[in-house]
Amino acid sequence: METLDLRVRLEELAAPIVNRSQVLVVGGGPAGVAAAVTAARSGASVTLLERYSYLGGLASGGMVLVLDDMVNGPEITVTGIVSEYVERLQAQGLAVVPPAEDRRTSQELWNKWGRFGTFDFHSHSNPKPICYAAAFDPDGWKRVSNDLVREAGVTLRLHSWFSRPIVDGGSGADNGVLKGVVVETKAGPQAYLADVVIDTTGDIDVASRAGAKFAHDSYITTLVFRLGGVDTAEAERFEQENPKEARAINRRIKRLLGGAWELWWLKTPLEGVVWCNAPHMSGYDGVDPADLTAAEFAARDRITEAVAYVKENLPGFANSYILDAAPQLGVRQTRLLEGEYVMTKEDVVSRRHF
User: Fold this and answer.
1) Predicted confidence band of residue 25 (pLDDT cuts 50, 70, 90)
2) pLDDT the model gives residue 274
3) Given a cut of 90, is residue 192 above it in pLDDT?
4) Is position 159 within any domain?
């Protein structure tokens, strides 16, 4: 990020202490909600802070609308809070999950479930096996998050943007103890204190500002979007009956988007609404506001051009329209905390216990 070689020294901040709790969680995405709810269920007093007007992070605001990578072959390896999300969303008709008897490999099952994204992305088989996964609605995720937090008795504050850490006894990971945070709000700065502070901001905003060591890197950034008015039955029929022509059209669409996964559109629990996990963009720093601004503009330009082509050329999409774009950019990697131990591939493969 380019800056002027100048500094402004700000006056010392006096922020009113508005809350004390045993556990303070900063960041209300999936990790933050899980941490807060689990701590509260264990009997701790918990406060959860979130900068936006909703909970869910990239699952809701980033509209990452498929829960995948939850299996190792036939074994379901990711459970706990996420299972509660899936069950509650299914009960509301806002999640699609293949039943156990359909979690296998066949062309018929691929035709039935593949376009929901509920398959094993890591498999090398063709077609890929259908597995335990969930295609869900983003607003439903927000509502379930609200319910989980409320039922657990978590003190929640939305519209509270982390500003600075409160470190007792000096600065730096080796010198001080993190005692809380200051957030910026419409009411001005506010301080929250706790015995334990958990950083679930995604970019380790709290830990890095408190002096913890970290590495900084970047990866693909994506602004996903949804299209309404899609005749998914016609689109799938065309794809199955004209695979060569469909592949050619989709290659062109992905070039216009500047990058996408193999299936650039997936079905959702809502009739006629599809989720588009694109455009993928590289070269942007997810903690640099100038880069984030440029990425937002570039993504919308690509989406507009691609959708115009889609409407003219892809059967089933003639009456489609841009329903919405995610309010949050999908930033996959920025700061990485340098912890006490770096997990290796062998640790994962061997299922090492710590």
Assistant:
1) very high
2) 99
3) yes
4) yes
pLDDT of residue 3 exceeding 70: no
| Structural domain contains residue 232 | yes
Examine the pLDDT at 173 and tell me if it is beyond 60: no
Which tens digits make up the pLDDT trace of 33-46? 999 999 999 999 99
Exposed, middle or buried: residue 25 (CB in 10 Å: 0-12, 13-18, 19+)? buried
Residue range of the domain that includes 81: 66-135
Count of alpha carbons within 13 angstroms of residue 304, beta-carbon side:
6
Identify residue 111 by its one-letter amino acid code. Answer: N
Q: How far apart are CA 352 and CA 310, in angstroms?
A: 47
| Amino acid of residue 123 | S
Are 284 and 292 spatial neighbours (Cβ–Cβ below 8 Å)? yes
Q: Quickly count: other Cβ atoms within 10 Å of residue 307's Cβ.
A: 20
Cα-based distances in Å from 42 to 28, 35, 39:
19, 11, 5
Same structural domain, 46 and 26: yes
In a domain, 340, yes or no: no
What number of other Cβ atoms are within 10 A of residue 91's Cβ? 10
- The model scores a pTM over 0.85: yes
CA separation for the pair 29, 35 (Å, rounded)? 10
Task: Using DSSP, state whether 34 is helix, strand or coil.
Answer: helix
Residue 141 has what pLDDT?
A: 99
Tokens at 86, concatenated: 């899936």
Helix (H) or strand (E) holding 248: helix 243-257
Q: Which of 85-89, 218-222, 231-235 is least confident?
A: 218-222
Q: Token pair for residue 36? A: 């807060």
- Helices and strands per DSSP (H, E), number in the chain: 10, 20
Helix axes 138-152, 81-91, angle to 10 degrees: 120
CA dist., res. 38 & res. 109, Å (int)? 36
